[in-house]
Amino acid sequence: MRTRQGARIVLLDPxxxxxxxxxxxxxxxxxxxxxxxxxxxxxxxxxxxxxxTFLQAARRELFEETGLTxxxxxxxxxxxxxxxxxxxxxxHAHERYFLARIRNNQSISRMYLEPAEHNVIIEHRWWSFDxxxxxQATQTFxxxxxxxxxxxxxxxxxxxxxxxxxxxx
Length: 169
Known about the structure:
This protein is of the alpha/beta class.
């Protein structure tokens, strides 16, 4: 089984809203043993390319998926290892999640999406913590447990973990 390394971004705006993308199931990671919803919400990000660090991949992917450039980058918050399927192929996914903050109100652009992403990414949305927490009963968010994870980041009073938390979901 090959390993797919990925970088995702926990992007917050000045009001502590989280940017997420609604995607179709096509071509994204589907965890074995869990039925795949037709649509679900993920954090921006994607695969690490040859020669890139995880942070370089996060920066590139955020630009490609949003066009956003005026970003303050923080630490790696979480890591996640999961056996999954990528376009029907069994893989071991190793992901790192980076904290970032948008400096000002910028418009999101789909201009830099790869051709296949235009069909997979349905919409971008900024979610407040309360919206995210109340929507988890009717919406699917990845990584699992995202509202609780985000609460820890927002309640950190400026104190972020010195080492990334390993997610076991």
